[in-house]
Design a protein that fits this description.
single chain, 89 residues, mainly alpha, globular
Amino acid sequence: MVAKAQPRPNVNQWVPNWVEKIESGEGDLFFLAAPGGAEKTSFLNILLAKILRGKVFAIAVAFSGTAATLLDGRRTAHSVFKLTTESCP
């Protein structure tokens, strides 16, 4: 069986929905998971630029150092939240 190819998501379609939820106070924690090439980093950098213009506080972190180098701010979750191996079960 061959899966039908899906069109790549357009970053400009995602941003307005998330900005609206953030500005309305609907959400306080967002998790973004998508396959490679889905423009996650571009989306996050655009989203952060838009919401940080207002009175919103946001922290963007990545789990790996490699991923963190692509984000504006370049921070890993373990460095921002002081996570250690003892923090994990």
